[in-house]
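Feature request disguised as a bug report, sorry. It would help if multi-protein outputs had a clear separator. Right now it looks like this:
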Amino acid sequence: AIEGFGNVGTFTALHLENFGAKIVAISDSRGIIYNERGLDIKKLIEVKHKTGSVINYKPGKVLPNKKLFELNVNVLIPAAMPDVINEKNVNKVKAKMIVEAGNIVMKPEIEQKLYKKRILVVPDFVANAGGVISSYAEYKGYDAKKMFNLVEQKIKRNTELVLKTSKAKNIMPRNAALLIAQKRVREAMRKR
């Protein structure tokens, strides 16, 4: 399920569909379109472009926006608004994994509650790192293929490191990522 069908949500949905994922729900400012059999993302883009909202997609059930965070899905991707997982809905979250494609999707205490419920949260600064890496690749003059390879290599390596550190130290992935980042900054400062 993806919250938001702007630039980030659309790009995410297209890539996940290309990888074989079944996207069952997408929201925009007017509501959610839900179909447990899956949504055709290219068709959904056309519907959004022609009508102004994902809720006009057929076949599907229209739900209010707040229900997105309560759907029984494997992966939930908040990709639009800040503070969308909060005290009001944290106990209703059924997803096994949350990938923060938006910024400041939840406060640290909410993330801690999800961690205790054994829901994996991929922090925003890990999930959004591809944009920073691609900007570097653009600066270096890489073509699209070389840029995507660089992004894939760095994201995979660092995500694996964050997850291994999280498990080994029994801490949230966000805290593991912060430990790794702090260590890298200290090492760079020592080298200078």
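(second protein starts here, but nothing in the output says so)
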Amino acid sequence: VYTDAYLGVSFEIPNGYKVTTDKDGYIYVGQNIDNQGPLIPYIIVGRYDNFNNETTFLNSFTEYMKKECSDLKIVIDLLSGVVGNRTVYGIAYSYSSNNHLIIDNRYAVLINGKVYMVGSKEENTNTSEINSVAEHILSTLTEGGK
């Protein structure tokens, strides 16, 4: 179980995965994290206090991504499903970064009136392993470090 004092959350991660945070409070989970940060594939976890609706957040995030990535494609449009005992909304993108194809999944869940985002980034593909880890984080994510 990983507990983050800055975001005030905890969640389970599999053996062999490491965790780091950045100066903005985002949590990164991956097997390959060095002193320069996470290497793809990895998962990012963040909290967005200025949103209280998952679809509004994901629509806003999509607008942000369109500005950041000139070749952004929506691979899977906004959808919802149940993960664990909560409704999760998600969207998947592809874009290029440094001549690499990036597959970027973003999931949003509302916990105690706050939107939490769990995203996964991979190169060239969308594997079941990284998505299983993201699903496990989403299903075990709790506030208060409990």
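Even a blank line would do. Unrelated, but nice: The mean pLDDT is 93.
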